[in-house]
Hints:
Layout: E1 3-8, H1 15-31, E2 37-43, E3 55-63, E4 66-74, H2 77-105, H3 118-125
Parallel strand pairs: 1-2
Antiparallel strand pairs: 2-3, 3-4
Helix pairs in contact: 1-2
Organism: Aquicella lusitana
Protein name: Ribosomal subunit interface protein
Pfam family, one: Ribosomal_S30AE
Amino acid sequence: MSSLQITVRSISDSPTIEYHIRKHFAKLNRIYSKISNCRVIIDVPQNHKHKGKIFSVSIDITIPGKELISRKQSQNLYIAIRNSFAAIEKLLEKHIKRKTIFTNKYPIPPVDHNTQTKDTNMMMHN
């Protein structure tokens, strides 16, 4: 069972923000069901050189044997959320593809239990 932790700093949390994050997280779970943890942090950095607010969205997901991290910024919070989840999705797909290639490149040969090796035959006849 995967858990989702949402942290919102420097702005007020809203049900709309949580809805968008949960929607994107559900899509990630459909792509890869072995996500054990997902942490989303939304922040408004104070020291930036742009006029207006810049929203920063960091996503950290944990899958068996690996941790994937994405950080995106935008003047629009929902674009930052979308772009950060899109980056995580690409990393996840790359991980799945790499895992599939490795598995297919080095397949484990099937074992035929009906055949006996010479060593086994020798031990049986001694």
